[in-house]
């Protein structure tokens, strides 16, 4: 990735919970253009509000690496924060699908929450 993220957020929707095998997905958005090297396995998911998301995974280990959403041109790329393996990565600013957040998950102070996707 080049430059700083446009923002960092977490998503608690059931699709992200299933996709990550965790209770939420932590994502950092970066502006286009971006470069991809290597190969990825793709999976397209249609969200609750009709958005089409293309998720890319490592074809060897299955790690969720990044995704894009159709219809947002130029589309930012959303990269899994864990892919950076950097404990000093900035904390989330937003939390979406808070209606699906596990009650024991506590967010950092100042995080803006949305019951669903604010689009």
Automatic annotation (TrEMBL):
Phylogenetic placement of the source organism: Bacteria, Pseudomonadati, Myxococcota, Polyangia, Nannocystales
CENP-V/GFA domain sequence ranges: 1-98
Pfam annotation, one family: GFA
Gene3D superfamilies from the UniProt entry: glutathione-dependent formaldehyde- activating enzyme (gfa)
PANTHER family assigned to the protein according to its UniProt record, in alphabetical order: CENP-V_GFA DOMAIN-CONTAINING PROTEIN-RELATED, GFA DOMAIN-CONTAINING PROTEIN
Stored SUPFAM superfamilies: Mss4-like
GO MF annotation, one: carbon-sulfur lyase activity
Name of the featured protein: GFA family protein
PROSITE patterns, per the entry: CENP_V_GFA (PS51891)
Keywords from the named record: Lyase, Metal-binding, Zinc
Domain of life, source organism: Bacteria
Native organism: Nannocystis pusilla
Family: Belongs to the Gfa family.
């Amino acid at each position: 990735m080049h430059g700083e993220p446009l923002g960092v957020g977490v998503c608690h929707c059931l699709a992200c919970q299933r996709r990550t095998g965790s209770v939420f997905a932590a994502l950092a958005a970066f502006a286009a253009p971006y470069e991809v090297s290597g190969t990825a396995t793709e999976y397209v998911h249609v969200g609750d509000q009709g958005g089409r998301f293309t998720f890319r995974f490592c074809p060897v280990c299955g790690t969720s690496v990044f995704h894009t959403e159709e219809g947002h041109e130029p589309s930012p790329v959303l990269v899994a924060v864990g892919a950076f393996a950097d404990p000093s990565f900035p904390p989330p600013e937003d939390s979406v699908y808070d209606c699906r957040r596990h009650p024991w998950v506590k967010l950092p102070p100042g995080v803006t929450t949305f019951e669903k996707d604010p689009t």
